[in-house]
Amino acid sequence: MNGSPEFLEYYLVEAAEYLDALDQLATVPEGRVPDTNALLATARALRGSSAMAKADPIAAIAREVEALVGGIAEGTTPWGPDAASLLRRTVVDLRLLVRGVRVWGPREQGLAEARLAELRRTAPATTPTRPTPSHEATVPVFVALQAAAIAAELSAFVADSTHRRALDDAVSRSRTLRGVAGIGNYPPLADAAESVEQVARRLLPDAPLTAGEANVFRAAAALFRVTADGLRGTGVHTVPHDEAEAFASALATLDQPTSSTPPVVRIDQLFHPDAGPHLVSRGTAAPLSAAARLHQDLVTRAEHLQRLVSEGRAAHDPVAAARVRRELNATTRELETLAASYGAHELSAFFAESREARDVLGSVELDALSTASRIIAQPFDTLDDLERSIATVQRRRHLTPAAVPSISSPAARPARATPTGADLKAFLGTGIAGFSSLDTQPLSEPADLDATEVVPIETLLFRGPAAIERAIALRESWRARGTPPDDTLQEIFDLLDLARPDAS
Asked: How far separated are the first and last CA of the chain, in Å rounded?
């Protein structure tokens, strides 16, 4: 028993959870056989954890429990009161041995050897080699244990916020849970675990819990607890919608995170607009232009933004949606600040509008962010080139209509049978009868147009100042499309401003 003190503490908690699971799995109504796959997975987990903690006698007992359960599954060891009693006694002795790991002595060694001997007498002499339990059999047991432990630790921390060890353990288990293969099959545990870790990271060491933070941890504990109870009861995972909604609502009440990117101050902003002399002098040209430096800062964030867009499209539960919204809010806030620092005001306004959107996870917003992420990932020569590209995406965002159900969509009209026979005749009669109102409400008299009153086409054309204003409007439309004019066309555009009546 020479494991490190920190790991030993973790082992004591984990082993107690495995023993709780063994006790629960072994307690079944008379006449029923326990879930041997779950028993085998739990015993194997206890053996592995004990071996890592250097608790070799406990690992040896867990190995014999595996052999006993394997015999029950193969039919070589009958399941009945004797086998059930042996498993329960083994769990009782294992609890004593786990608690005695720190002070292991002759008493604990004697108890371990006696329990080991009885198990070996009961287990079949030639236990068939059992295959490794399937992923479906092992993961639910581990997920249930970890979820229950996280719930207990979070509840303890909310009850006493000075008990930071409980929060640290909850965060550590949350990280472990997120690393489990197949955790995506147990929504929304992975997103809830990540959100718990993010909220815990923002806590100040000695500051008391705010009401919003306490609500988040309390709602998370309820979510993990209900999920663990469901897995332990039926072994089948179902999304606890009420608890997931409550947790997502608690997350939404927290203050939005501030941007972690400080504004970039360009050196030319520190000079007076006159020719000088100044206290500082302009140095040689930087090896990278402002556009190139901005691109370097943007390209590192483009991939992260695209990943969030993909996660937003796949967020089918409220907890996942709440997490993606918070991360998108933080990322777009950071990009907004960064773009404004470089003078890319169109880009800054684009990301500011994303944060203020009513539903950032809507298809229109996600499409716009996806396109923007591809644009900022590509090199651009000047800030104007970048701004024109983003302006195109901005116009498309504003012009794209919200998704509406089609006429044939069941959501667009009530479901009813097509009329036939007498019903069809009555329906057509009612529809045709609707035109009878035209008999009592005659149309207005036709307009009497005098053939001699011919409108000259010249009166419909732009002339004078109106023609100049129309030409300027067409110029702005040309520029908005992002098509750079050649030198001749640019000169004509400049002459339009000079031709205005109010031009000096």
From this structure: 93
By residue count, the chain amounts to: 504
Alpha-carbon distance of 360 to 349, in angstroms, equals 15
Place of tokens 């030993």: 8
What Rg, from alpha-carbon coordinates, does the chain have? Answer: 36
- What is the token pair recorded at 17? 């959870």
Closest Cα to residue 297, out of 336, 329, 327?
Answer: 336
How far is CA 119 from its chain centroid? 47
Are 94 and 61 within 8 A, CB to CB?
yes
pLDDT of residue 93: 93
- At position 374, the amino acid (one-letter code) is R
Q: Is 309 helix (H, G, I), strand (E, B) or coil?
A: helix
Q: Which helix (H) or strand (E) holds 94?
A: helix 81-99
How far, in Å, CA of 327 to CA of 251, rounded? 12
CB atoms closer than 10 angstroms to residue 84: 16
Q: What is the pLDDT of residue 60?
A: 93
Tokens of 336: 């907004």
Say which residue the tokens 């504004």 belong to.
Answer: 263
> 345 with 405: CB under 8 angstroms?
no
Could you tell me the CA-to-CA distances from 95 to 43, 108, 124 in Å, in that order? 14, 11, 25
Q: Look at residue 406 in the predicted model and tell me its pLDDT.
A: 37
Cis (ω within 30 of 0) for the bond into 205? no
pTM score of the predicted model: 0.52
Determine how many CB atoms are found less than 10 A away from the CB of residue 19: 20
Q: Name the superfamily (CATH) of residues 5-122.
A: HPT domain (1.20.120.160)
Burial class (CB in 10 A: 0-12, 13-18, 19+), 236: exposed
Distance separating alpha carbons of residues 300 and 181, to the nearest angstrom:
28
Q: Alpha-carbon torsion 405, 411, 413, 416, what sign?
A: positive
- Report the largest interatomic distance among the alpha carbons of the chain, rounded to a whole angstrom: 125
Helices (H), 287-415: 290-313, 318-341, 345-355, 363-377, 383-399
Query: Where are the domains positioned within the chain?
Result: 5-122, 137-253, 290-399, 464-498
Distance from the Cα of residue 58 to its chain's centroid = 40
Provide the pLDDT for residue 127: 47
In tens, the pLDDT along 63-76 reads 999 999 888 888 88
Is the CB of residue 390 less than 8 Å from the CB of residue 372? Answer: yes
Ranges of the chain whose pLDDT falls below 50: 126-129, 135, 257-259, 403-416, 438
Q: Which amino acid is at 153?
A: E
Residue 219's closest CA among 141, 158, 140? 158
